[in-house]
Amino acid sequence: MSVRQQVTYNDELLADGTVHRHYSDGRREWRTRGSGFVSWRDDRGGSGRDEPLGRTLVKRIFADGRVLYGRESGYGRTLWGDGILTVNRSSFGGRVGTILAAVAGGALLGALVMPPEFLSPVEEEELRRQAASQSTDSGGGGSDDYGTWSDDSGDDGGDFG
Predict the structure, then answer these.
(1) Splitting the chain (161 residues) into consecutive groups of 10 residues, what average pLDDT does each group show?
(2) 29 DSSP β-pair partners
(3) How far apart are CA 67 and CA 69, in angstroms?
(4) pTM
């Protein structure tokens, strides 16, 4: 499957520590960090959890039990198994960010790799184990590969797509 739609978004940090995400397709989402996951709910009745599986894969578990994998591709881009490419405009900021997001989303499409359609529980656990050993080997003492809500300056997209 290839990219069939690109959707940009901006994040707004709220006073209670949650994030209000505004998508270019009109959808709005509220995100709350947990321990190793992000819970979300949107204005269309959807909800679920996003969990990182290693540095680049994200497992999205919907409230109804459906699972969708995404692959983070740097520069705030995540390609989802359903062909949606989400691009974080807030990690760049302002007018320059809009231009960079368009360039990153368009010019680098060839570099995007589709996420897996399915992973077994054993494969998922192995990815979690590898990520845990990488974080302890790096000496980061519990550092989060995905940054913090208030620091989306890296090229990872901030909080799991």
Answers:
(1) 85 95 97 95 98 94 98 91 92 56 54 91 94 71 39 50 64
(2) 21, 42
(3) 7
(4) 0.77
